[in-house]
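Changelog-adjacent note: as of this version, every example in the card shows the full chain rather than a window. The one below runs 479 residues end to end.
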Amino acid sequence: MALEFDTRRPPVRASQYLELVKAVRAASAADELDWLEWKSTLEFQPKNKADKSARAHLARAIIGFANRQPDVALRNVEGYGLLVVGVDPEGYYGVDELDSVELERWITPYVGEEIDWRTTYVHVSEEGHERLPVLIVTVSPPSWGDPIYCIRKEIPPPPRGESEQTKDKETIREATIFVRRTGRTDRARAVDIDRLGERLLRRHQALDLTLSVQQGVVPHVVTPADDLDRVVDAERERLVRPLRSATGGLAMEQMMRGFSYPGSTPDPRSREGYLEEVNQYLEALRNALPKTLPEVAALAAPRIALRLHNRTHIHLKDVQIRLELPDGVLALPPMDPDDQDKSDPVSRELPKAPRPYGPVKRDLYGGFPPSLLQPSLGVMPASLPHTWEIEVVGNTVVFPEEDVRVGLSEDLVPFVAVTEQPLSGTLQVSWTATATNMEGTAQGTLALLISPTRSLFDLIEAAESAIHGTQDENDESED
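Full-length structure tokens:
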């Protein structure tokens, strides 16, 4: 079965190292990988001082992990290599817990000082063991331009009949090269040395990308006081209309309170109490309407589309773009009109309207301001969708990773940006890019055009048109 361990990040805390140890115990023999090796135990302090087999095994592993290809290594645990000693799928065995400085002093003569590696001990209290020490050796990720690592000092074979800890029953000569394969560490073959030579020669390769704007602008959105008054007044008119007589002279309070339809009861509120409720609601509505900008813009603002071009001479894997927008600019994942239901218009920011004055039906009316549902205004989406893969954190837009082949381009997932600041002209936006199979960062700037000032209520109308237009098309297709 597959190793049950999250390989997106390397272990850094004691609890994460312990999770790795338990994952090895639950693994099968086939689960050793190019980034993970385990060993039931190694005797670093054997009775026979001439037995260097434990040191040989550790040196082999460190050299093998360091000689991996960077693009392959980066697929798991961010490129690190891990040797776990003291456990295997058959059980927990433990190791002698040695001082890390002493262990480093023993191993460095064999692997040299250029490879970055470290040791960690975790303690297992499982299957009858109490704080059984398990050693984990972590080797840092390989990089383009790294040298070809080799054994720096000859390691003699174990004395005859003394050790079964290592495969090497003969001398490991100085300059022997080891490479890590899936499930094992081997002496390098000619093809392995060719690859390591290519890794060495890629020292000066740089990440070369361009990012361009294909379409889209940044609207400057305002909430005009006159438009806000118009909406609030229209809502007030709707709510106070039941208090007027049909002829305009007779108040309907007594009629509305005394008369009820079958299946209903008279309205328990007085005229004054109802008007106070309306006034409180309208004040809350006035304050809440400008706060609907993120929801409305996600649905109706122009989408910004960017194109990424690979000018590097290799196929780039998992390229991630981060866009840093200036302060005062709001970035949003776009919202698809197909996901909206015009029969259920709800906004998280808007207060609930009071029930219009009149007899109370047993199935109470759940109010959204009908004045906002007229063709002249609009429908607010309920929440941002989960189908878009971009991530927005503050002013930073993080795009999903893309593979980009040599000389080709990829269109990024679109996003929306708006501003309530009085900006004009263009915005200079900085961006950075990284790839998992190449070190370094590409960066640059691009210009986003700011469109002329637009009313929030124009966006609301556009949102409603998008929803109704999409659903009308769907209705026609069904017919």
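Structural remarks: The CA atoms of residues 355 and 365 lie 7 Å apart.
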